[in-house]
TrEMBL record:
Name of this protein: Ciliary neurotrophic factor receptor subunit alpha-like
PANTHER family, alphabetized: INTERLEUKIN-27 SUBUNIT BETA (PTHR48483:SF2)
Stretches the record annotates as Disordered: 296-325
SUPFAM superfamilies: Fibronectin type III, Immunoglobulin
Alphabetized InterPro entries for the sequence: FN3_dom, FN3_IL27B_N, FN3_sf, Ig-like_dom, Ig-like_dom_sf, Ig-like_fold, IL11/IL27_subunit_beta
Entry superkingdom: Eukaryota
Pfam family, one: FN3_IL27B_N
Species this chain originates from: Callorhinchus milii
Residues covered by the Fibronectin type-III domain: 98-195, 196-293
Biased composition (Polar residues): 313-325
Keywords: Glycoprotein, Immunoglobulin domain, Signal
Gene3D superfamilies per the UniProt record, alphabetical: Immunoglobulins (2.60.40.10)
Length: 371
């Protein structure tokens, strides 16, 4: 196709500039025209904001600019200034030749119901390219559905489970300069890869500074978690460290971490995999959590509470705690005074230790009652 021009011109008007987008094939000769002036008009061409320098491959002919044997170095924006009054902007996009072989990937995140395939070109062609897709199971061609939300994706239902036959997907990329194709073959179990689970919450365990309970749920796209269960891989680490702790979990969607770093914020993620087939999912969205931490005690508050508690525990004098010498007293600190039958003293001695100031204080409580 060398020397043959293939293009698409879309004139528009933007900021009073006439703009056209053109596509050309590699190696062709391209002429950019100035529509607004006569052959005698004075023009000045610019390429990517700089004045065009004449060369063997770049020639100004009248009011037109001729590019010979174009390659990727010619791609950019060309502007022509006519008599300092009229400006035309022309954007030249070069085709790189026929499309390269497309990259094709197939995956089942809804096993055993269906799988999907996606494709894309390694490099853009700058011209319209269409893709033709075919899917076979063994020797039989099967139907598929093109995805409405993703233009380069199709959805395929599994024909039968545990089949020995392979699936073959072929994607052909074609534009005006040629075509190329890619085919991949696989067994169903090799493309099974669940979507990541979702962590619901992470709860600290009261009075346990190294324990946290992580709860997650199956990916919504996994259709039959009871019939075809998943196993899980949990990883976690304190934010301040680089190394992860790992644990594999089966049959349940929760796990109690028992070796968390006390008082440190952790990052937690979980992945899923079919018990028998396929590969692990990507990691779930990271969740941050901190184990239970004892709240610090205000020293002043602690002193007041301790003093109040001790004071309330001191025995107070009562009528029953005072006896006459005639009836006697069972209490060792009830002593009668010589020569007196009417007065007795109760002396209580209490020695205790305050936890904050670490001082020993002796309290005396003396009560007397006239009998």
């Amino acid at each position: 196709y060398a020397g043959q021009m293939r293009w698409r011109i879309c004139p528009t008007l933007k900021n009073n500039y006439r703009i056209s987008i053109q596509c050309r094939s590699m190696g062709s000769n391209v002429t950019l025209e100035c529509d607004g002036g006569s052959i005698d008009s004075k023009v000045r061409w610019q390429f990517n904001g700089r004045n065009v320098a004449h060369s063997e491959r770049v020639i100004v002919q009248g009011t037109n600019l001729i590019l010979r044997n174009v390659d990727s170095s010619h791609t950019g924006t060309y502007k022509v200034v006519l008599d300092s009054l009229f400006t035309k902007v022309s954007s030249l996009s070069l085709c790189l030749d026929a499309p390269m072989e497309p990259n094709v990937m197939c995956r089942s995140s809804a096993y055993p119901i269906s799988f999907y395939c996606t494709w894309h070109l390694p490099n853009p062609t700058f011209i319209p390219t269409e893709f033709n897709v075919s899917v076979r199971h063994g020797e039989k061609e099967i139907e598929f559905i093109r995805d409405d939300k993703h233009k380069n994706r199709c959805n395929v239902k599994f024909v039968e489970l545990f089949s020995a036959s392979k699936y073959t997907v072929t994607v052909v990329a074609r534009n005006s300069l040629g075509s190329n194709s890619t085919s991949i073959s696989f067994k169903e179990e090799t493309i099974v890869k669940p979507d990541p689970p979702e962590i619901i919450n992470v709860n600290p365990v009261p009075e346990s500074p190294q324990r946290m309970v992580v709860v997650w749920q199956n990916p919504p796209s996994w259709p039959e978690p009871d019939a075809i269960p998943l196993k899980y891989f949990l990883r976690y680490k304190p934010i301040i460290l680089d190394d992860w702790q790992h644990v594999e979990v089966t049959d349940v969607t929760f796990h109690t971490i028992t070796d968390a770093y006390a008082g440190k914020e952790h990052i937690i993620q979980v992945a899923a995999k079919d018990n028998e087939a396929g590969t692990w999912s990507e990691w779930s969205k990271a969740v941050r959590a901190t184990p239970w931490t004892q709240m610090p005690v205000d020293p002043e508050t602690e002193t007041k509470e301790t003093t109040s508690s001790i004071t309330s525990g001191i025995l107070q004098p009562t009528q029953n705690s005072i006896s006459s010498p005639t009836t006697g007293s069972a209490h060792p600190f009830l002593l009668p005074l010589p020569g007196s039958q009417s007065i007795s003293f109760k002396i209580l001695f209490l020695i205790f230790k305050l936890p904050i100031k670490y001082t020993v204080t002796t309290l005396y409580s003396v009560s007397c009652e006239l009998l």
